[in-house]
Amino acid sequence: MIGLLRSSTLAYLLSSIPQHTHESTHAPLLFIITTLIMIDNTLANQHAQQTKYLQTHRTHLAPTFSHASWRAFSFPTFSNLVSSHPEIAVRMIQHAFYDTPLNEISRRNAAVALRVLFTGYELYESLETFENDVKELCEMIKPLGTYSERDTALNFIRPNNEITCHGPLTPLYYPLIVSAPRYAVRLLSNVFLAHVQQYIRRTCPDTNLTFWSRVTDVNQPTVVFFHGIGLGVIPYLGMITGFLRYVRERSERNHKMGDARTKRAYLINERNVRAKRAYLIGELNRYSFAQLVLALVHIRLKRLGLSLACLICSILPCSPPVDVRTHIYWSSLSSPPTNACSRSLRSQVRGREECHFGRIPRHIWAATSG
Amino acid sequence: MKNVILVEFPGISGLPLRDSDVPYPASSEVTASILGHLKSTVAPDTGVIAVAHSFGTMVLSSIVNTHPKTFSRCVYLDPVSFFGGATSLWPSLFCPLNVRIFLKW
After folding, report:
1. Residue B89 in domain
2. The pLDDT value given to residue A284
3. Which of A193, A209, A240 sits opposite B10 (nearest CB)?
């Protein structure tokens, strides 16, 4: 799963683990969250190629972290445990690392542990066999889509080409738990642009470029913005806003800037009144924004024919019964989870004692420590 | 600012790839697409100001090199300065003056 480890999301999570996790309670949480994300093996429907790949090769690449029933039980337990008793989670993490103190567990140890946990190292007799399968995986995961051959000189715009990427081709992998919130945020932005900011969306059929245009005054200059790759623009947002204001003031020297009353009248009296009134309510606080994103995630899942329970279960490398899924959902997302719910879940997975908690082989741990 | 155009590139910045047969566009195709949209949207002789950040600076440089009269001003935010095999993408020193005016901003 080295190819999957190259995902920018997972790389970010791994890089967030401090080099030495000094008594930080977020480290076990991050460890478990990363773990849960990485064992996503159902995937979103839109990742057809990755889904096909994993469905074909999951037999020897599927995680051997533990038995399915144990995973069905452990997910809500771990989730609740980390939030309520981080010290117990720390103890469990230390146990997984042969009772090593937490402040001695390095980022590299965590990275290797994740790799071992999710590549099923226990199935392999030697490291060479394991590495061969990793190479096979990298070979199988090839770039999505095709390249146009009309231009061979400057192809820098295409991702994963010999100029922008000097290493192996690395398609991005986004599990459902990442792609669904990302889709929700994008949908929220699109709604804001279309209904509040009055932008018109157009997609070029030849290149798939999307243009958001708002040209209302033909006598004024037009500003075209080209975005970057990631979130690097955030420090410059104030500068861009100031620049736009500067251009507007220069082009409208004789135009009086609208005061609050003028803006309010504009927002209420013109088109899309309801959306504009919503805009007038003010900034969303974090709680409201989280609720909005969660609602949009739900919309996305419903369009995919899924439910929130499926989202949670997509994290689990198992297919628990429907009623277990329901309990997992409620015990994971509801706050606080009820004891009755936990008891019910526990009773359903009781009796399946063949679960096995995989541990890192001692020689691997010794080789990576320090 | 009343007149703003935002350009989204497929497969960049987390934009999901579409389930279509349209391949990744080459730089010339991207340039042609942007120019076509500007031609159909912006009134002539009103001035078009380009603001680009990071990856967008490479796209902007490509357009400026091939069509130097497209933009009246260019603003580069956190530009890609060192880009292997693509140094020719930066606007030439011999490009028209109106392109180099951005240095004064």
Report:
1. yes
2. 47
3. A209
